[in-house]
Target: DUF2768 domain-containing protein
Amino acid sequence: MFDDPLLKMWVSFIAMALMFLSVVITIFTKEKLTGVLRYSLLTMSFVCIVVSGLIVLVITFSGPVPE
Model:
């Protein structure tokens, strides 16, 4: 799926950024917000962490790139 090693690197950076964004959203939401906005942002945070986990899973199991 990912034959280019540089592409694999950038996709994994996107996954790490999604993880970081999820943590920041969760911390901000738990400390500052209440009500419907809180739960909608927590849902967005959960979606970010699930998507980043799937990206890491695909990158990891796609194996080494051919040289």
